[in-house]
Amino acid sequence: MARTGRRRGSPDTRQAILDAAREAFADKGFDATSIRAVATAAGCDPALVHHYFGTKDKLFLATVQAPLDPAEVIPAVLAGGVQGAGGRLVGTLLRVWDDPVTGTPALALVRSALQHDWSARMLREFLTTQVLRKVVAQLAVDDAPLRTALVASQMFGLIGVRYLLRIEPVASTPAAVLAASIGPTIDRYLTDPSIGVDPPPGADG
Amino acid sequence: MARTGRRRGSPDTRQAILDAAREAFADKGFDATSIRAVATAAGCDPALVHHYFGTKDKLFLATVQAPLDPAEVIPAVLAGGVQGAGGRLVGTLLRVWDDPVTGTPALALVRSALQHDWSARMLREFLTTQVLRKVVAQLAVDDAPLRTALVASQMFGLIGVRYLLRIEPVASTPAAVLAASIGPTIDRYLTDPSIGVDPPPGADG
Question: Are B115 and A120 in contact (CB < 8 Å)?
Fold first, then answer.
């Protein structure tokens, strides 16, 4: 018997919401996707989306199967102020990725994201809306988008070299040594006044 | 009629050498692979491998379809000395990747490398033996392997954010601005005495 009208709560409905959300986020991006549109596509009431997933942020985190919510980690890392935040950010990143419980699914997410444009878009939306935007919100700096994207480039590269490509000695260097070596890079990207400034003519020699 | 004995030169032989080389490099790594072993696996004379590909470096570059030979670029970039090398390295990297002729196949190589352990190993061998090792050879610094792997992490992350994930504003920032912003990171990784040193206890606070 064909069902008509809106679905009521069931494991099927939860999966239908996830499928509709994944398609909407990948197709239109995080900002242009509404809970209401996801509910319509899934054939259910918006209240049911809120019931299952809470906020749009949480719905998005569920669609990418994020092993943790960056919003729960970032404020603590940045609470000590911008200076020294780099080492704490790198240390936190490595704690998440060195732990198999969170690191294994995170690695699977990045691997899958890099295979297809579709999932690369999901990873970009994840980094920009769930990580970088929340870092920017904590920081009072100019050129915040460029600064945080530069931070993302160093973080993403560290993930790639340590976990995907496993290039030595970075693959097996203790996290604390890496945090001390890479932390000042992050600090500079977040605070140095020369970031984003046009170089003087001929400066690239 | 079944062929016996060693193959003579032909397009088939060239392809057989490439296939044998790809398998050997991925299986045993660059250093443990000899031209002789590749020739044996391809059923031809080692002289034919040299005839088609020249050196083992060149054979390896052919198996990964590298769009250019890093050995032809790195010495010029480092000729001006370590100081300021960072900006020149980033500028050179972006010139190669911004140009569709070299950038498109390079991006295809990285995409494919990230999909499978097998090809990730090839990319790791490429970076370590063809890029990082040649950079180390030009530099007189301590802890060269860690320093160059850290350089690789920033370079790989820049590639990932600008070309794979296309995170703004890094995706569309002029190369000269990125070189000026990221160059000092590379300089610090190559020269700063604190790189690779254990942090004092409690330093990650």
Answer: no
